[in-house]
Amino acid sequence: MVSLSGLSPVKSRRVKEEAAALAAKLTESSVALAPTDLEAARRQAATARRVRLRFNVRPGPELKRFTCRGCKSLIVPGVNARVRVGRGKQKALRITCLECGRVNRKILGTP
Ligand SMILES: [Zn+2]
Question: Under a CB-based contact definition with an 8 Å cutoff, are residues 15 and 8 in contact?
Answer without folding.
Answer: yes
